[in-house]
Amino acid sequence: MCRIAGIIDFTQPENCHRITAMRDSMLHGGPDDAGIFHAPAVPLSFGVRRLSLLDLSLQGHQPMQTADGRYHIAFNGELYNFADIRRELQQAGHLFHSGTDTEVALKAYVQWGLDCFQRFNGMFALAVYDQTANTLTLARDHAGMKPLYYYVNAQQRQCYFGSEVRSFHQVRPGWPEDEHWRIRFLAYGHMPEPHTTLKDVYSLPKGHYMHIQLDSFQQLTQAWYQPYNGPALLHGAAANDALHQSVEAAVKDHMIADAPIGVFLSGGIDSSIITTMAARHHTQPIVTLSLDFEDAKYSEKEYQQIIARQCGTTHHAFTIGEAQFQEQLPDILMALDQPSNDGINAYFICKYARQIGLKAVLSGIGGDELFGGYPSFKRQRWVKPLQTLGPLLGLGNWSAKDWIKRFSYLRHTSDAAQYLFHRGYFNSSQISMLTGSSLQQVNDVLQLQAPATMLRHNNPAQVSSMEQHFYLQNQLLRDTDVMSMWHSVEVRIPFLDKRVLQVCEQTDNRTRFNTGQPKQWLIQTFANDLPEAIWNRKKMGFAFPFGKWMQPLSVRGAVHPELPHFEKQFENGHMQWSRYWAYLLSTGMPIQIGKPKRRMLFASLRTFSAMGGIEKFNRAYALALQHNALQHNWQVAHTSLYDAQPDARYFPAQAFMGFRQHKWKFVWFFLRQHRHFDTHILGHINLSICFALTSRFSKAQRIMLTHGIEVWKAPSRLQKLALYSCNAIWTVSNFSRRQLQHINGPKLPVVQLFHNTLDPFLKKPQHNSNLVPCRPRFRRVTCSPLPAWPIPKPTKATIK
Question: What is its EC number (predicted)?
């Protein structure tokens, strides 16, 4: 098990020297050894960090090459049938110098070329460079258990690849984000393949290879593995026998290692089967480990102990509480690599596996997807009848229930829409609001209008394919890989062995799925191997008491105007923890334990859609608020009556809400949300209705920004009510301050001078002599650097 990286760059060959930094950004995934290969004739470099499990000697050093120096491989994973392939290769005349599966993969490529992958049964991601043919081949296992990310620019003749997305920042610091990643994440709670959070960085599809001819940079991406899709071959008792044999054989092969290995034991059906089969084929007591909780209603300790006693395992149980979660939170966030709504449970179990000295662990992941363990298998039968309601499904947007809001996805028929009906976090309308994107743009990014390919009928096998394609692939497998490798532990998954998958695919639906009882086929097959107490009970799942543990969490900095409302809903039990966690991760702001010291709402007439003096002031002010919020532990939200989108240089789109001139929607929003903020800043006196309507019952600090001619005349009754409800009035000039005090009398709240500002992104003029008389008037409210042209050093005005 390793972490691999590669750089091929004909445009900037010097980038190949960044391979060391790229490789070592994934040090946690391979602490045992490290290697680099630089090709002599082309700008190509491989880097590998090794976690050794087979042949722990230096004979397994990577990148590995053939004796003649033609072929070079960077290999991440395990081939469980490597011994069989090795014998076949030896018969063909190949010699071996190590006991590793890496050398088997390399010699298999030499012998069979691109056809070798069909012979592999395991989890892997690899790269092979053929020096003579000048080709690069990337490949990934049949189930996508091992990740492989890549960037290809054929015009520039560039290709970068790595096991983690974080490694790409070492090639190009400040790599731009994919502009739509938040849309996808808020819908799914994970990054759906092939997309990542980085622009033009994609995941190689499972069961595929990419072959690049480096002379021309022509690419061929092709599937090497196809699931069985023919008529059913197995039924009844024959299917039961085939399933039992395939699972038992898979577990036996997955236990092969030259380093300490164990089993995750949750107490559920899947992990209990894996434990039982592993104990049967191990001469010494196997090591099992499990998690327990201080809150008894989440504990499965009773069932874990039943299996541990029956199998005679050396069992380790670890108790987790809120204090451990809060202590490890910064490390959990660092481990994520890409945002994910899951993975915290995998973080802890892998952390403790490493703590007791294990290097590899078997897991029961995949059982629910293959054997019908999720509610979606029953719920899918309602999809077609609900879709006949058409536009009426949009009424779900008005419901306070999250699961009813998801009905709106069924206005579309795509596989993605049906999956999001079952598991979506936010619906299209909510995502549009939270990201500032149009509803059509959200639907296009999520591909909701694409034709269905997997879910054309109410077929449980198709639901299984959906759960494997979306949830298993993008959530469980990715989270398991990234969290296990963060702790230098390999997680092996017997249920995704090729032999088990093929038995499932060849079994008729009546045998495989029983809508009366989840996982009936699995239970029936292994009933004689498990105590009844294990399978004859309600499924609990591998869950944590997150709802309680996440109560103190918040973010600081620029946040969407809806976030304080989300926090209140979550605290009152009206929002699931998973939706709250998903939104926190989507902000890109620092997640912290403890609430912000201040929540500020800046409401402007216009900030970004014009270039007048007021708008320039608002832009610099919005930027200053954002920087001060990060520094002083505030939350700052910005909303505008006339704007549609912000300029991201000044304020992030995910923290902005523009109303596109819909005046009453703007006023209604302020009336509905103002109570969630303790500081209100009104950017123009023409928005006085917001302060006037809330003057009687608002407890927030209220500040009004004034500028020039709009306050040089007598205010209307509404404006006067708003002015007198303020705690402070800020104005940009002494003349405006005098006019305000003169016109409105001595009872007016304190009027403070708040100087106009230089735009922090002001371009350097070609001739700046005419600016000399203006210099003393400027003050700075933003912490952003000003251009390096000769003006007096600005002062920092912290907003208090």
Answer: 6.3.5.4
